[in-house]
Amino acid sequence: MAPTIDFSAESGDVFQFPKGAIPKAPKIPTNPDYNPFTASAPSTPAAPAASGGSYTHTSAVRDWDTPSPRTTHAVAETEDYVSAAQELFKSEAVGAEPTTYPADRSHFMQIGRQFVATTTKSSLLLIHQQRADERILYELFLKQYEYKSMHAQQLLFPVNIKLNTDEMAAIKELLPEIERFGFRVDFLGSSNMVVNAAPADVKESQIQQVFDEILSDVMQGTALRQEAKISFAKSMAGRLAVKSGQVLSTEEMEQMVNALFACEVPDMSIRGQRIWKSIDFSRVEELFESISN
Fold first, then answer.
1. Domains delineated in the chain
2. Integer Cα distance of 239 and 216 in angstroms
3. At what angle do helices 129-147 and 228-240 cross, to 10 degrees?
4. Pick from 61, 1, 236: which is nearest to 133 by CA?
5. Helix, strand, coil % in the chain, rounded to nearest 5
6. Closest-CA residue to 259 (of 152, 139, 144, 145)
7. How far is the C-alpha of 147 from the C-alpha of 47, rounded, in Å?
8. Which residues make beta-bridge pairs with 186?
9. First to last CA, the chain
């Protein structure tokens, strides 16, 4: 005999919520100490990128990275940037007393739209913003090159670049490096190159400038004296970096300083020039000494 249910009969098992009782929201137990990144299984290192305010360097994978300038230079590395800067600032000069990296954003200031000024415990620090950003981008691009993470972004309107015979030959020779840096190109005839895709950091209006810079290095023989990837990274960094005269917000200056001191070579520009200068407060004080008769 099959069981039947009499829906007309009243059941004494029907649950009734107590009158006036306040229901509690359901909770899911979690382990606050759990970290999925501490697993023993080996993992592939994440590709570097950079982020920040309008300065952020973003690439489909720098921030010095966004960026990021905007390049615009993910800085999941922001904390590493800060700690790296702290270590450098603690030993800014042999024999100097330990200094403290400025944590307060009010300690960042732009001078003449060319320099970023900040302070440590015992000195004034002046940073050349364009040289700093070039260094940040240069190292970022090389890291992305090694990680093979410079992904191409399809252009809505392909960019046509006119080339002479020598330039065409040079570009074809550098084609593997060009594609590794995130560009996708086609050749039309003997004098036209069409750029169909570019790295996320490179705006459509900057593509011609980037290739002009690369070709200039090639024609001058610079690229022949260096590895192609180094010449390419320098050319891209030089064209895409923040320029002298560009206004930076306090947040952008902070990100730039953090990223710079996370670089492998934070004190020398990609052209071999000084990037920053530390001036001891005692030296600054001497500038205000009384003028004796």
1. 151-240 (3.30.1370.100)
2. 12
3. 140
4. 236
5. 35, 15, 50
6. 139
7. 6
8. 194
9. 123
pLDDT of residue 184: 94
| Burial class of 59 by CB neighbour count within 10 A (0 to 12, 13 to 18, 19+) | buried
pLDDT, position 65: 38
Which of 210, 253, 276, 274 lies closest to 69 in space, CA to CA? 253
- pLDDT, tens only, 23-71: 777 777 777 777 777 654 444 455 555 433 345 654 333 333 333 333 3
Tell me which residue of 115, 64, 116, 123 sits closest to 91, measured CA to CA. 123
User: Within 21-128, where are the H helices?
Assistant: 78-90
Query: Can you give the pLDDT at residue 287?
Result: 87
**In this structure, which amino acid lies at residue 154?**
Q
Q: What is the pLDDT of residue 229?
A: 84
Supply the pLDDT for residue 146.
87
Helices (H), 3-156: 78-90, 129-147
Contact call for residues 257 and 199 (beta carbons, < 8 A): no
Q: Which residue has the higher pLDDT, 109 or 19?
A: 109
Q: Which two tokens stand for residue 73?
A: 């230079």
pLDDT-derived band at 142, boundaries 50, 70, 90: very high
Report the 10 Å Cβ neighbour count for 82: 17
Identify which of 104, 100, 141 has the alpha carbon closest to the alpha carbon of residue 123.
100
For residue 241, what are the contacts with CB-CB under 8 A and spacing of at least 6? 69, 71, 130, 133, 134, 136, 137
- Angle, to 10 degrees, between the axis of helix 129-147 and the axis of helix 250-260? 60
Pairing of strands 123-128, 276-280: antiparallel
